[in-house]
Design a protein that fits this description.
This protein has one domain. Strand 1 and strand 2 form a beta hairpin. The protein is built from 5 helices and 2 strands. The chain has helices at about 25-35, 40-55, 65-75, 80-90, 95-100, and strands at about 1-5, 10. With about 110 residues, it is mostly helical. This is tRNA 2-thiouridine synthesizing protein E. Belongs to the DsrC/TusE family.
């Protein structure tokens, strides 16, 4: 499978995850999010940046929703609930957020 971005075909797997993480850019993330009816806000970018940082600097860790809740509570200085993250990424903060962040598909079952 693939997606078209700026006249270029970008290879993805059947789930829409990038085949090559080097294809990712912030502009591509915006394009991918818009295709899923998401307009990226600063909070979306905080989650995306956290997911990318964990993956690329922490031994390819792909945090689950519980870890994202904790990290965003610390970052935003307020208690964040699972619902707050699902408001940002309704299909699953770790999986949908990871896809938009350009990370490979997670093999874990996800969830809280």
């Amino acid at each position: 499978m693939s997606l078209t971005f700026n006249g270029t075909e970008i290879a993805t797997n059947a789930g829409g995850y990038l085949e090559n993480q080097d294809d990712w850019s912030k502009d591509l993330a915006v394009h991918m999010a818009e295709a899923e009816n998401i307009t990226l806000s600063d909070r979306h970018w905080d989650v995306i940046d956290y997911l990318r940082d964990e993956y690329f600097t922490n031994n390819q860790t792909q945090p689950n929703t519980r870890a994202i809740v904790k990290a965003m509570s610390d970052k935003w200085g307020a208690k964040v609930g699972q619902k707050d993250l699902y408001d940002l990424f309704p299909l699953d903060p770790s999986k949908q957020g990871g896809r938009i962040a350009g990370l490979p598909e997670s093999r874990r079952k996800g969830g809280y």
